[in-house]
Fold these 2 entries.
Entry 1:
Amino acid sequence: MIRTIVTDPLAPSNLAFKKVAPPQAMPWEALVQVKAFSLNRGEIKDANDSKASSRPGWDFAGIVIEPAKSGTGPQKGARVVGLLPMGAWSEQVAAPVAMLAEIPEKLTFAEAATLPVAGLTALYALRKGGMLLGKRIFITGSTGGVGLFAHQLAAQSGAFVVGTASTEEKAELVREAGSDEVIIGYSAILSARQFGPYDLVIDSVGGNTLAALLPQLAPQGVCVALGFSSSNTATIDMMNLVTSGGKTLYSFFLGEEATRQAVADDLSLLARLVIEKRLIPRIEVEANWNDIATVARDLKERKFSGKAVLHID
């Protein structure tokens, strides 16, 4: 039997440990002994809202203990990072090799575990803008895991990047990540106009913020909607959107994006960028996975920026 984390309405933060049978891999899956995983606000929210027992978890890093029977993917003993739709918070997982990338020895399991959801989301959202050299990009949620990765990747593309922060202290984190300008205070989002119009907007806030940003798109500009941390509804000025023409509002869901992307190759790319110090995961919290309830609560309440990583002994 192995230990795994499940949702439980009677447990703190709705999360509890449970012993289950080890996973049985399909021919295209490898068995991985998980060493670390990172937390994302989306999965925490889903777990907190769950009324039935489920096994949450998306990001993980560990060691292959049984390679895929198909003969593809990382071999036994390989250090890997991967992505699952659920169940990654477990001592062992069965992972499709298409979602699994081998990582070099210089990359720690903690660093690797930050890359799947946050890193791939940032990478794929930026790709919606095409060639970014010389373009203007606006990023909300800049101090979160996705935001900090997006700023670093965008800065390397040669784009002019504007970010957001709630305080001057947090604004400094965004500047360190490569932002050219930082708008402080989400209520002042209209002041972003002074640096626009924008060829690409990456928004994870939704609500009034999304509505205020759409008119700031340049002709042929794209707004990638990643989430709705402030509100799941937005009142859009359709006259402005339609009469300006050529602007795109793109709904982004990583699970759907992953079906059309070379996830293993892109995870390898992100890992290489970390090794080369061109991408720096900001890990604010590292703890044992026995502390899942406390860390999950703190992440949900935005008590820290960047990523939280939990280690499995």
Entry 2:
Amino acid sequence: MQRPFSQAAENNKGPIAEVLARYLDHGDLLEIGSGTGQHAIWMAPRFPDVRWYPSEQPENMTGLNRWLEAHPSPSLQAATMLRVQGRWPEHRFRHVYTANTFHILSRPLVERCVQHLCEHLTPQARAYIYGPFNYQGHYTGDGNRRFDLHLKSQSLSMGIRDQEWVVALFARHGRVLLADHAMPANNRLLVFH
């Protein structure tokens, strides 16, 4: 089996790393939904003081592990199996990062993800959420509108989430929006503290 490949992950890894460099100092980081692992293998060597813990659903672990095995790094940890609706690791993290997951997860699973994510953060920790978001119910560009319609054609449970709704979910768990970074291709990187 060849390693899976995501062109989107290849395109956005550099801009995401530039923003994360403002925040990542040290400690353990859980990546939720690592996908192919392209972000993990790119980021971990760039942040040597951060122990990067990739995670994925069981059915995606083989592809993820192929990337991790091909690109070892001292700060890159073994991948963890994680289903948002299932059991989470007992470990608490200084950082939690996820890219392009909230529009794939159903709204109830986004709520569960935020709840568990916040429970697994240390008190002074930060969460980083990357992806497309709507603002006040409106798309930020025509590309996002087409993407949202494409998602909903696959499943009505998927779709671009409202930024304000995500901010309110974090606020329920005592986490506030620290920054909202504009990213290429009409994406955002939300930072919660």
